[in-house]
Design goal:
With 246 residues, the protein is an alpha/beta fold. 36% of the residues lie in helices and 12% in strands. Residues 89-230 form the SGNH hydrolase-type esterase domain.
Length: 246
């Protein structure tokens, strides 16, 4: 399927991350011996850039800690923004989010990141295709990359659970007819990918971040404010509760 070649899939001009220096970091990190190693994977919606905009990771971490879940966020990136302690624990800052990264770059890097960070039990795959420019890659190429990323995760852990987002939309003002054609298509196609990539030992699931997401949840045209981060975290938490209790 080829759409107009000037269309930019996702939010390529806006997804660049930045960070700030940490202060008052607790000396009591979450234990690192968990069997539930969770890799948050994606671009700037994963990385965050507090205080300009938020990642869902902190709110999800608090929900998981509050529930008593045993888990460990993993990744080769480390968030050095300021986050308050919760339940006398410091925020687990590890992740695999890089501002501006596209699906081809994730595909190229994923094997090395998996080797360096350790084997994930669960991968949270954010906004697949969100930074892909359809002037330089076909839509079919984006889907091929997403499938290859899933393949790489399953190769290192045939028992991995992979949760792929049906991504939250950008600001309504950014939703051109061309954008919506691609956006609605990839919302459907990630379901097909999840179904086709699931195996007897590796569940590939989708999580609906689109339904109920509003402009009031955005700090700018693309990135989450606190309300948006909480919304995304809640959706992940709902599905993780089921997975972690199995």
């Amino acid at each position: 399927m080829n759409y107009h070649n000037t269309f930019i899939l996702g939010f390529v001009f806006l997804l660049f991350s930045c960070s700030s220096d940490p202060e008052n970091v607790s000396e009591t990190p979450l234990p690192n011996n968990s069997e539930n190693k969770i890799m948050p994977l994606g671009a700037s919606r994963v990385a965050g850039a507090r205080p300009q905009y938020e990642s869902y990771r902190y709110e999800l971490w608090k929900l998981l800690v509050g529930s008593g879940a045993e888990f460990d966020f993993i990744g080769t990136e480390n968030d050095n923004a300021n986050y308050p302690d919760f339940n006398s624990l410091s925020f687990d800052r590890d992740h695999e989010g890089r501002g501006g990264i596209n699906s081809s770059e994730i595909r190229l890097g994923i094997d090395e990141w998996l080797r360096e960070s350790g084997t994930p039990d669960i991968v949270l795959f954010s906004s697949p295709g969100g930074n892909d420019d359809l002037t330089s890659i076909t839509y079919e190429g984006v889907l091929e990359n997403i499938n290859a990323i899933v393949d790489a995760i399953q190769a290192i852990n045939p028992n991995a659970t992979i949760i792929i987002e049906q991504a939250a939309p950008p600001m309504t003002s950014e939703q051109t007819p061309e954008f919506l054609a691609i956006y609605n298509q990839i919302i459907e196609d990630v379901v097909t990918i999840a179904e086709s990539q699931s195996t007897s030992t590796s569940k590939v699931l989708t999580v609906d971040m689109a339904t109920g997401f509003t402009d009031a949840m955005l700090a700018d045209d693309v990135h989450y404010n606190e309300a948006g981060a909480q919304f995304i975290a809640n959706r992940y938490f709902e599905i993780l509760q089921t997975i972690l209790s199995e």
